[in-house]
From TrEMBL:
Coiled coil regions, renumbered to chain: none
Entries under Gene3D superfamilies matching the protein: Immunoglobulins, Zn-dependent exopeptidases
Sequence ranges of Basic and acidic residues compositional bias: 359-368
Disordered: region residues: 348-368
Lineage: Bacteria, Pseudomonadati, Bacteroidota, Bacteroidia, Marinilabiliales
UniProt cross-references to PROSITE patterns, sorted A to Z: FN3 (PS50853)
Protein name: Fibronectin type-III domain-containing protein
InterPro entries linked to this entry: CBD-like_Golvesin-Xly, FN3_dom, FN3_sf, Ig-like_fold
Superkingdom field: Bacteria
């Protein structure tokens, strides 16, 4: 008799939180000599591979005894043989065949950026849908807009996954050539400009070329407020051009302020439309051209890209092509939500209902909508839930976003995302209520949903990563005949990639949770392979130590991109190459009759294919945007001629057959005149990091008062400081969530972090002072072969650089006073070259590392000593009388959350040491020394706050002018 324990322990300890694995029954077939074991569903949660399945089956055979020796042993869980659950990429061809996707009919891709390389081993021409969590929504029972989750640890799940999807995952996919679709606003700029044939934003205009055969059709109409059932793409007009021969229209927006703006186009799709309509976007960096297939993807907002625009009317979008072209509205920027909601107990009069085409009926009598309690969100549109974006972009309400009779926006929101994907595709993969709906005919390859709701652990261990898919409904096949186990394959490949990468880079024992085959709406509704990811737990502090770190966000996003890439390449039977990592060691230097930019590639220690073969150098002139770049196979680039008084800035990407890397830091150069002295600017501010944490028994959380962290470029998802630090505080409801509870005062704010573009701020002031400048990264500056001897003034940007502990106990990151850095400054000062250095942790980085060598260096060479960190709360600074007239005046630097300057929450107090050293600046708040000046055989000025955070351009210019005059005075 075969005997088993009631619970089968987890076969491998590295998988956690699986639940009980239980044997339900055994079927013995003596005639065919077959033993079939049927386990509960939990066994299917494991990431099966052939070796594990063989081992598991062998262990069962050992228990069968002599009576059943030689019987074939089969193991089933969740109705599947465990070998069937092995991802197709790891199976033999015969086992994997049914899970290979049934490729849609090959059509011209929806959108193609004409300046982009065709990445043959990337994701060129693939169409990928993805989204992030929940969003700001209307709760009709409470008659208020709110989050679907609680504010915890300065964040909220409704928006924190966005900090992976929008800054990282979507750009990585697009850099590999993919076309991405997101059911939420992806532009963070709250300005919105509409250009249309029947209404345009103030000072914006739409101009049709002459002598065109034009027919008016239904299209978009701008409305200040969208009420229930209103479809903006059904109540306006568009223009159909039947005889296009080149340029057909020009859209000219009035841009209210300089900034980055997303550009969306719209048109009526038609089988007779051109499949190659060109949209030429003229932005401040030049022009970018896209080819759009107007036979698909119409009657909605179609995202082209995000561009830098200058204030005014210098930007244009030209439409060009041959044959039949549809012209509808263009939208620039994200805007503020305009979908109005009301309590469910209010009934709209019939006069506000719509006809079957989604157009407003003519009211029988005049109705004043103000008599009803309509409410818009009052938030930037990127914060809103999918349900409202889908109404704004023209999706049919009853098929996509209004699935609960206008009574429950919460359910409508999470249900709408899968229905939206199906409507993008259309028949036979259409929405649940109408599989044969025409839809937008976009051949979506796969879908990915991102959440962080994985539970709580009492012992503060990291809960880890959970994957969810659905393979049960519709006889386990998609309408096109593809096995739904393809969703399991996608889930397995992404989860495996995430866990392996996190273990390699951050935490050896990161928990791999199960893969659930469950009927979550976001998993079962899409009619394409789909994964719902629960990366970690936003409720659990051990997880959020990672989740709030921009380095972790980048690496996990790269893992997700790699999982998608590898899955899609296998589905299409081709090889893949992972796009490279960003380059480093950037340096500008003088060469014969000009200047040269150089860099070094970065090796990816966990991905062998991510090797660059080419590079692209992007150029910016003064304060414009970057151009479309120049490709080179070298690691050097000779600069174009620089005009007097002009600043050129450069960033570099690495390219291979799989795609393009993220950009490097930005270096700049400016020439005041042929005979002007030249200063060297060293960009030594590389740090991005999570905030500080405190964990003292029952007192635990985000130590925002110590260090608020440094976002990558910008932070868009911060809610406010945590105020409940008591681990024992119970959750009562989302308005009173207990431990981790946080304020909401920063919601909707864009908080600047490390832009990696600080050189230009220093350079502008240097140029105005009448000096030229050139710049270099700290990695290149510290190298033994970099010659800085020609520069009398060295300006070192430290920003918020400070020693930051790495996750795996390796050497700390971002340390200021490395041996190479100190040696270089010793050489320069010995050569009587002068040092200007500014940063928030110029002294405290020495104190926190207890580095006596660095302490001696600061005192003996730079001539200062650390006195205190968190020197002041506000940023008012004045010059001391004893250094006048060398320095004079007052200034103010930024100490609060701002879109324009990063936050200096902990400036240093530093004091002079030795003869010829004096306090140069003091903090007005308490008269603590804020900066020192040394005037000996060489000169130094060291500031305990970053120069680039001085809020007034006039004050920056004045300070830099005084410093350089002091340095260059004999």
């Amino acid at each position: 008799m075969i005997q088993f324990e009631s619970n089968w322990n987890n076969p491998i300890e590295e998988w956690g939180h699986l639940g009980l694995i239980r044997l339900d029954s055994i079927a013995i077939e003596d005639d065919s000599k077959m033993l079939s074991y049927y386990f509960n569903k939990t066994l299917s949660y494991l990431p099966w591979r052939t070796e594990l399945a063989d081992t598991f089956v062998a262990s069962l055979k050992e228990l069968q005894g002599k009576k059943h020796l030689g019987y074939q042993t089969l193991v089933y869980t969740n109705k599947y043989n465990i070998y069937t659950l092995i991802p197709a990429i790891h199976q033999t061809d015969s086992l994997a065949s049914e899970r290979i996707r049934i490729a849609p009919e090959k059509i011209i891709p929806h959108i193609k950026r004409l300046q982009q390389v065709n990445y043959t081993k990337g994701l060129s021409n693939n169409h990928i849908a993805l989204w992030h969590s929940h969003g700001w929504y209307y709760e009709s029972k409470l008659d208020r807009w709110e989050w679907q989750r609680a504010r915890l640890f300065g964040s909220v799940e409704d928006i924190s996954p966005m900090l992976y999807v929008l800054p990282y995952i979507a750009p990585m996919l697009e850099n590999a050539g993919a076309i991405t679709y997101i059911p939420r606003e992806r532009c963070f700029n709250s300005n919105e400009i509409i250009i249309d044939d029947n209404w345009s934003s103030p000072k914006s205009k739409f101009v049709l070329q002459k002598r065109l055969d034009i027919e008016s059709q239904t299209g978009f109409a701008h409305l200040d407020t969208l009420f229930a059932g209103y479809n903006p793409f059904k109540i306006g007009t568009s223009q159909l051009v039947k005889n296009a021969r080149g340029k057909v229209a020009v859209y000219t927006p009035y841009i209210p302020e300089n900034g980055d703006y997303a550009v969306y186009i719209s048109y009526n799709q038609n089988d007779n439309n051109s499949s190659a309509v060109e949209y030429k976007v003229k932005h401040s960096g030049g022009a970018s051209t896209f080819s759009v297939n107007q036979q698909i993807g119409g009657n909605t907002w179609t995202y082209l890209g995000t561009f830098a625009f200058n204030k005014g009317t210098s930007a244009t979008i030209e439409v060009l092509g041959q044959g039949q072209i549809s012209l509808d509205a263009i939208k620039i920027g994200g805007g503020i939500g305009n979908v109005a909601r009301r309590p469910t107990n209010e009934v709209m009069p019939n006069e506000w209902s719509l006809n079957n085409n989604g157009q407003k009926k003519e009211p029988a009598k005049k109705v004043n909508p103000e008599q009803f309690t309509w409410k818009t969100s009052g938030r930037p549109r990127y914060m809103e839930a999918s349900r409202y974006w889908l109404q704004y972009v023209g999706m049919p309400d009853t098929l996509v976003y209004s699935l609960n009779d206008e009574k429950n926006d919460y359910n409508d929101d999470y249900q709408s995302r899968g229905e939206w994907i199906d409507y993008l595709m259309g028949a036979p993969n259409g929405p649940t209520k109408d599989r044969n709906a025409t839809g937008l005919k976009i051949p979506v390859d796969l879908a990915f949903a991102f959440h962080t709701d994985a539970g709580v652990t009492p012992n503060d261990s990291a809960i880890g990563t959970l994957g969810i898919y659905s393979a049960e409904r519709d006889s386990s096949y998609f309408p096109n005949g593809q096995s739904k186990l393809a969703s399991r394959d996608l889930t397995d490949m992404i989860q495996t990639q995430i866990v392996e990468d996190i273990r390699a880079l951050y935490k050896d024992d990161w928990t791999r949770r199960g893969m659930w085959d469950k009927q979550y709406s976001e998993a079962w509704r899409p009619n394409v392979p789909t994964m719902l990811l629960e990366l970690l737990s936003h409720q659990n502090l051990a997880d959020m130590r990672f989740g709030l770190d921009p380095r972790f966000r980048f690496d996990v996003s790269r893992s997700i991109y790699k999982g998608i890439l590898k899955f899609q390449a296998f589905q299409e039977g081709r090889n893949y190459v992972v796009q490279p990592l960003p380059v480093n060691h950037l340096a500008l230097k003088e060469i014969n009759k000009g200047y040269q930019l150089s860099w070094k590639p970065v090796r990816d220690s966990i991905e062998s294919t991510a090797v660059p073969s080419k590079y692209k150098v992007y150029t910016r002139v003064d304060n414009s945007g970057f151009d479309n770049g120049v490709i080179t196979e070298e690691t050097t680039y000779k600069l174009p001629k620089i005009k007097k008084g002009q600043i050129l800035s450069f960033k570099v990407t690495a390219i291979n057959e799989g795609g393009e890397s993220f950009a490097s830091e930005i270096l700049s150069i400016g020439i005041a005149g042929k005979k002007s002295e030249k200063a060297l600017v060293v960009n030594a501010f590389d740090r991005i990091s999570a905030p500080s944490f405190v964990d003292e028994g029952n007192f635990a959380g985000i130590a925002w008062w110590d260090d608020q962290g440094v976002p990558y470029k910008y932070e868009y998802g911060y809610t406010g400081h945590q105020y409940d630090f008591n681990r024992q505080s119970p959750w009562l409801d989302d308005d009173s969530p207990g431990w981790g509870a946080s304020y909401a005062n920063d919601e909707g704010k864009i908080i600047k972090g490390n832009s990696f573009d600080n050189v230009i701020i220093h350079g502008q002031s240097i140029l105005k002072a009448g000096y030229s400048f050139i710049s270099v990264s700290d990695e290149a500056f510290e190298s033994y072969d970099f010659d800085a001897s020609a520069y009398k003034a060295i300006d070192i940007i430290l920003g918020e650089e400070k020693t930051t502990t790495s996750y795996k106990g390796e050497k700390p990151m971002y340390k200021i006073y490395t041996p190479a850095f100190m040696n270089k400054l010793k050489q320069l000062t010995a050569n009587q070259q002068n040092i200007f250095m500014s940063g928030a942790y110029v002294g405290s980085d020495i104190k926190m590392t207890s580095d006596t060598i660095a302490k001696d260096f600061a005192e003996d060479v730079l001539r200062f000593k650390w006195r205190t960190n968190h020197a002041v709360k506000n940023g008012s600074v004045y010059t001391t009388d004893n250094i006048a007239p060398i320095l004079k005046g007052s200034l103010e630097f930024n100490t609060v959350h701002s879109q324009d300057y990063y936050t200096v929450e902990a400036p240093d107090g530093i004091e002079p040491i030795g003869i010829n050293a004096a306090t140069a600046y003091r903090y007005k708040e308490n008269n603590v020394s804020a900066g020192i000046l040394y005037n000996g055989e060489y000169k130094t000025i060291i500031l305990g706050f970053p120069f680039e955070t001085i809020k007034s351009e006039k004050e920056r210019d004045g300070m830099m002018n005084q410093i350089l005059k002091f340095f260059y005075k004999d």
